[in-house]
């Protein structure tokens, strides 16, 4: 079966079943070999811009008939897909099903479209099983889903009954508290997540509400940002009134996490995210997280300076 995906999480779900898509999105970079596949999508957003500028561009694109993303219909037709895996959860994070349907109307093949719309960890595992059925790997999907659930339960079993107040931000200007699967992952890692319930959408929050909640651990993981781009935009938070008064700041418990790969993709690596969060919350029990995934917030200043010297011109795009 020839499968095309329009989002990184779909590509990762397929890869976990032993299926390599013949075409992917411009964002698909894991497993690393996927970066060599033909890309059928493009973004109209300058993803190297600052957080507030990206937010402005997205808001403008959402009011434009063309939207945030476009599909390369010529390449899509050349790939002759039998199945396209897309999504309906967020038209900012990736190409959505409506855009795919319009593109399919313009090409000669008539592929099946499978749209994912996960809001919880359970939804992600259900999507894995749905994709497994669609590609004839149902037994494999059941096995992989079971292994992922078991790993998540292993993390949960090792954590104490009570943990620190945690907030995860998946954007910084405006400040947005991560929802969807993040409350479940934080709970599995041993934290209390009081600003969103499992399945809630990520939404902008007044800074005053975050100050009132006063997280004891704050994880900054902007959507589409790896650590170097979070470093470039760290002043979105550090310049805010009352930043130094937050318990997490006073106690040195503010962490930057690679949101691009570990927070915003509803795929198999969400279990990795739970494991990394457990390391952030309880390093004595779980060990320290890899520096490629999460670093204490003050370390971003050095990371930003290294990025200026070594990685000028690198572009990261919202996922």
UniProtKB/TrEMBL annotation:
Task: Report residue spans for region: Disordered.
Answer: 284-319
Q: Where is the Fe/B12 periplasmic-binding domain?
A: 2-285
Q: Which SUPFAM superfamilies match?
A: Helical backbone' metal receptor (SSF53807)
Q: Which Pfam families match?
A: Peripla_BP_2
InterPro entries this protein is in? Answer: ABC_transptr_periplasmic_BD (IPR002491), Vitamin_B12-ABC_binding (IPR051030)
Q: Which domain of life is it from?
A: Archaea
**Gene3D superfamilies with a match to the protein in the record:** Nitrogenase molybdenum iron protein domain
Question: What PANTHER family would the database entry show?
Answer: VITAMIN B12-BINDING PROTEIN
Report the protein name in the record: ABC transporter substrate-binding protein
Q: Which organism is it from?
A: Saliphagus infecundisoli
